[in-house]
Amino acid sequence: MINKIIAYVESNNNQYAMRFEEAVYFSKNINTKIIQLIQEYNRCSKNTARMIYATSWGKYQIMGYSLYNGICDLRVPVGAFLCNGKIQDMAFLQYCQKNMIDLQAVENEIVSLYQKYIQYIPLEKRGQALHEILDQKNSEFANVIIFVKRYNGAIYPSDRFFNYLLRMIYALEKMQEVKK
Which residues of the chain are modeled with pLDDT < 70? Predict the structure, then answer.
């Protein structure tokens, strides 16, 4: 279930989603070895490879540099990646494994957070409630905090972190409504 939550948060479960990150494209810290791999597997120019490098792809919005840098070990053109949801699922799982993210623990904690603390709080008060809950009980939800930081780059207790967490809870809630 956690993979469906993340796919919903990242792209509304759109396996064809793409998001260009201009700051990454113009960064001076581009890994030229990854650019060369992207060129090789996509048979493209250096500029196109740089665009692939600087774009997040698919339902999990994995950055191009992560797809080809040994974390996801993609060995097909990015177009083939977009057209195959199973390859995207495998890449997401590889990404999490190589970044030492325990997806089952993340799922257990997000479900617990929702069921124990959030489900009966009105939508407009959930953001503040999450701040208070995590300020008091952040060790209880350590895997969620680690996941959001390693996957999204948002650091607790930033607004970006809480926005991502609220979207995870919203996705979980929507999935539970569908089951009813």
Answer: 178-180
